[in-house]
Every structure is written in structure tokens, then in C-alpha cells.
Amino acid sequence: MRSSRRPPTARATPGRILGAIDVGTNAVRLELARPMPDGSFDLVHTERDPVRPGEGVFTTGRIPREVEQRLLSTLRRYAALARRHRAIVRAVATSAVREAKNGPDVVARVRAATGLELEVISGKEEARLIALGVLRGQPPRARNMVVDIGGGSTEIAVAVGDHPRSLFSVAIGSVRLTETFDSAGRVPRKRLDLMRTFAAEAFQRSLPRFPHPRHALGSSGTIGTIVAFAAEGGRKEATRKRIRRAVVQLAEMDVDERRRVFDARRAEIVVAGAVVLEALMDCLGLETIVSVDTGLRQGLLVDMLERKGRVTPDSSTGEAARALGRRFAYDEGHADQVARVALGLFDDLAGLHGLPASARPVLEAAALLHDVGSAVSYSRHHKHTFYLVANGDIPGFSDRERLLVALVARYHRRSPPDRDRPDLALLSPSEFRMVRKLATLLRLADSCDRSHHQLVRSVRASAVGTAVRLSLRARAPIDLEVWDAEREGPLFRKVFGRRLELSVGR
Question: Per the confidence metrics, is the pTM higher than 0.85?
């Protein structure tokens, strides 16, 4: 990230400023930056406010009213700054708002008071964004692990190049552990032992065995503070042995002693943060940790920039959808076939449907996951699919995008996606048009593998006059597929204004 200070003769490259707002558990942060032609960002403005949105959440389950007022006041100021710079903004909230019982009410009040759409992201999405921010520009074959200790959760990402491959989130962080064990002051040895055991068990319960490097990059302020304390000569790298020694040293200090080393808020939670880092390094067998200055906010900027400029399909969302499907033992062969056909229809009929490129990954994920509801019951499985997808975790999709995926998948059978359906009535006009068109394409693609035997080798679609001609090449008779596709003809004509014509060849 470049500094906002530049030579007087230099001129910033014209371009729309992007804004990232991170409502964390310990603090709220704003970053405004202008994308540069070389792929870097020119920092325009940054702020950090120790609002402590997670104060009390992990013991009471709610965000207190006074904390909410602090949050609203801060976000009003951030929204005004973003408007002043005419910035495109993405605002996200992590574990505190995610876990608070009144989190949805807080999100609604933020929208009403500031105009910001505060997006509550999952732990895995948080890990993905952090990795994007830390690993931007890494060599394509470089393998890295990125860890981030927040106030309420710890995120872990393993990546090849700058592409995250494995994502994990564990519900333990510096504020949560501090509140659980009342460790803001000096921590007696017996309580420290309990904290260490608690943290170790949290990681052992939550993390499966997976291949990873033995050295990690630590992106959070908590990690940076602990590494700086533990390392020699102001270095940004510390061994596991030095982290273990730092845990004991920090626990023996009272809060006033710590405040002479750290800022006041950090002094209260640094012991718990060090315990979490020690437990994580022990669980993963990490030899060293290197602190870095980038993380979630930079990841948000990178993600916004990549979404804006993406001209080729992003495979990461498809892999994330497959990972969710495997959790429910879905029929992967059928899902891949339906997705392949659906995306082919989307590409062939681009001039007819007129949907933006951003609709393509929504269709792909819906096609891959359309039958996951069968894990609950085949009867009404489309409705079970909606619930599982809407409440699942698909890194790479915002909450709103995941809802659209769930709706497209839900309408792959039975009732047509009409405006009077209660779950579609609240969509904006553009969202409804997208869901309706994508669901119609998905129904047709699903018909092309009605037998679940992947008999169709290829499907080509072309608009000819008042019709859309669907040419299928098959490796065996596909009477069932043709019969089912013809049943979708009336809906196709209603949605796209063209009749459907089918031809089959070998």
C-alpha cells in the first residue's frame, strides 16, 4: 500500500476511489484508496476507532445499546468521508455482529442512519478476504499460510500464489478469551494454564489435518503487537519458542505495566491474544510467524477491484460451491454436468438474456448445488436446497449473492419463479429478472441430464428468428432428457419470448 504523501509534481491517476470499512470485534476501520495502473493502491485516507463492537457480546450474546451508539456515530462519519470522496464502498462486519442476537437489528439501524449496507460475512469469507489482501502479487506457485487473530475468531488460509485453497475459522479470539477468563490484568499461573488448555482444545476441535507450510504470515494488529514484543531488535518475525516466552512475560505484567508498552485497549487483551497465537502455532506445528501490515481492508479493496475488472470466469467460487456440495454428499457427476450445460447456455444466449457477467458465477453455484437438499429429503428437496444454501458458507459470495444462488437453485423444479412468490417479492426488479432468467436456464440444463447418467455430450444454443434452437449431441438415446426439456418450453417462451426447438444428434 503506497503512502498518501507524494511529490508535489506527481499526479494521482484518475480513477474511482474504493472504500473498505471493517467492523471488527475490537475496532472499526476505514480505508479509502485509488487503484493505480500497476495494480497497487494509492492510499487516500485511513482511520481506526477503538469502538469495541464486541464488548460484552461473548458473555451476554448482545451488542449493548451504548456500544451500538458508538458504532453508529463512527459509521456516520465514515459514510460522510466516503461520500466526500465519491468512493465505492464495501462495509463488512465480522464475529461480534455475526454472533450477536441483535446483530440483524444493528445492521438495519446502520442502514437507516448511514445509508451503508453492512454485510455480515462468514468466518471463511473473512479468511479469504484477508488472504487476498496479504498475498496480492505473490508468485503463482508460492505456497503461503496466512493467519489472523481477531477479537472473536481466528482465521486461517492456505494459498497457492494469491489464490486461497483452504479456509478455516475458529471461534476463539483475544476479546472472547479475555472476557471468558477475566484476563485484562495480571494473570495468575493457574488461570493462564486454563486459558492455554481452553485455546488448545478450541483449535484441536475445529481444525482438521491439512497440508500447510511451517511458516505463517500474521495479518492482525494483535499478531503484530505480540511479534514485536517477542522478537529481537524490532524484527517482524518470531519463533514459537519466543511466543511461548512472551505469553509468560505478558501474564506476569499488570495492566498498568502493559499500558507503558502497548496502547490502553491493546494492553487489556494482549495476554489472551498471545495465548491464542501460541495455541495456534502449537496445533499447526508452526516454526515461525511473520507479521505483515495488510489484511482484511486491503482484501476488500482487491476483491472490489477484481470484481469490477473481471473478464474471465473466477474458478474460486465454483470450487467453494463444490466444497459445500461435498459436505452433503451431493451427486458430483450430475452437478458438474448441469453446471457445464447451464454455463454453456448462459454464454451462447448472452445476447438474448442480457445479464451482466457477475450473474455467471451465481448460475454456476446454483447449478452445482441445486440438489443438495436431497441430503435432507428428496421430497421437496428444492426447498431444502434453498435453506442449506442460504444458510451455508460459500466464500467469494456476499450474503446477498448467496441468497440469489439459493433462490435460483430453489426454482430449478416445480413452481416457476414468478413475481408473486413470497420469497421473490422482496427482490429488486433487477434481482428478480436475474433470478427468473437464471432459474429458467438452470431448469433447462437440469433437464438435459434428467437420467443423471451424463448421456449428453454437448449442448449448443442459438437464437434463430423467433426461436432458440437447442442442439444436443448424445452418446446414447436421451428420450427422457428430451421429454423433460420440452416440458420447460412454455416457461422458456414466457421468460425469453422465444419458442424452444430441440434437435438431437450423435
Answer: no
